[in-house]
Amino acid sequence: MKLNPHNIIKSPIVTEKSNIIKDSLNKVVFAVDKGANKVQVKNAVQYLFKVKIDRVHLMNVKGKTKNFGRFHGKRPDWKKAIITLKEGEKIELFEGA
Questions:
Q1: What PANTHER family does this protein's entry cite (predicted)?
Q2: Interatomic CA distance for residues 65 and 88, integer angstroms
């Protein structure tokens, strides 16, 4: 299945933990399409951000079950990608202004 690079990368994940690994290990975290594989994610990030990538780790995140009074629901499952950038590379999106 051929996916558009803009559809593979859904959004950056900006949390305390992702900021720590960005600063110390040169890794960035994205929410990606559930059907994407490592090669597609790598090619999409290289195309969109013009950076060189060392490795890609993917993980499936299960959605939480939530209760709203007597109603029960579930948040959707999603996929997370942790991208290790090569030495000297950085993504300007995450750099402070």
A1: 60S RIBOSOMAL PROTEIN L23A (PTHR11620)
A2: 41
pLDDT score of 1 more than 60: no
Phi then psi for residue 94, to 5 deg, are -90, -10
CA 47 – CA 5 distance, rounded (Å): 7
Helix or strand (DSSP H, E) at 57: strand 53-61
Give the number of other Cβ atoms within 10 Å of residue 29's Cβ. 20
Quick: pLDDT tens for 37-95: 999 999 999 999 999 999 999 999 999 999 999 999 999 999 999 999 999 998 876 56
Give the chain's length: 97
